[in-house]
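Hi everyone,

Forwarding the result from last night's run.
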Amino acid sequence: MFKEFKTYKLGILLLTLALMGIFTLHTSLILAQDGRVEKVSNSPFDKTIKQLEDAITANKVMAVNKIDHQNMLTMVGMNIKGSKTYEVFRPDFGKILFENNPAAGLEIPLRIYVYETKEGKTVVSYHKPSVALAIYKNPKLDELGKTLDGILQAITDSATK
């Protein structure tokens, strides 16, 4: 009986892993336990960057900073493929955040990281704001986190099309 149970558990595990693999393959989306989301773009790096910038504007969010890791690393003699971080936010969301818990200011601006893999695929990555804001145990910040999750999802969906 134990052998049958062990075989059953192994079968369930393999089926679960297979389904997870199929889900990841078809959606090009990976969600880590820490709330990190990664999406593989259907476009090359430069086109993904253009689509990202357009999506940031279309979603009424400000790019408050752009970090070009590729360019910065050439200053120390390192050459890497495309690698940029966009820091984005909106002042009206900042008002909600600071009115409810100024310590949550650590979580903004939100960051979207775009990088090119060794295989030439472009990946767009971010941390879900709802996960970061949940630690403050404030219903208003929980609501804001969910709103920001939706905005980052819309931005990154547009960027990776």
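DSSP finds six helices and six strands in the chain.

Cheers,
N.
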